[in-house]
Predict the structure of 2-C-methyl-D-erythritol 4-phosphate cytidylyltransferase.
Amino acid sequence: MKYSVVIPAAGSGTRMKANQNKLFLDLMGKPLIAHTLKLFEEDAWCSKIILAGKPDEFQIFNEIIKKEGFCKIEALVAGGSDRQESVKKGLDSLKGDEIVLIHDGARPLVDIKLVHQLVMETEKTGAAILAVPLKDTIKKAYNKKIVETIDREALWAAQTPQGFKLSTIKAAHEKAVLSGVKGTDDASLLEALGQAVTIVHGDYRNIKVTTPEDLVVAEHFITGRET
Ligand code: CTP
Ligand code: MG
């Protein structure tokens, strides 16, 4: 089975408070984004990688690509002002009706076995995401005053990769632009159109490196994976 992957990497990493794109921070001797790219570079099912970055960081991305010897990166495209726009720009550079995965540059820990399960589910159903059941008790609150405890039974935390037929997700992104729908992931754009998306049970280790303590956790899991 084959797939392409779009990797949005054009963020600023404001919650990391590192004064630079968090994807360039060191993780076990190389930039965080190099770990994410390596997973797909080494996966035989992955035919090409589309990376979305900020144009003024293209040089840094190109240096990383060269240093690591990555050869599946077919395009480095200019990202947009939010994640959704960056993904759309990446999708725009792909043609055909292959399976496309969308994967956050900030998730360097996804297990390739789960990626393959996701690709197989996408092949079957047309749209699938990795997600994990929530562990915490979830409160809804305004101004820190709780109004409700939400039944956790049906709640999942969405992760990436998320897998789609290319034409389906391209159409959803185009419609979202026209209707002004915004989502922090790609499945939500299909959901807004009433289209079905299936969950593949993911792994709690597939964290999105977002705040400083996540780097410590990522380092721990990468050490475990490499030994
Ligand atoms: N992303 C992107 N283009 C943007 C914003 C985000 O490609 N305009 C990417 C990020 O680089 C990241 C992924 O989307 O790989 C998930 O976003 P997030 O974790 O929110 O990263 P940042 O937006 O960089 O971080 P923050 O929200 O803390 O600023
Ligand atoms: Mg963000």
The chain has a mean pLDDT of 97. The chain is about 35% helix and 25% strand. The helical segments are 32-41, 58-68, 83-92, 112-125, 166-179, 187-191, 212-226.
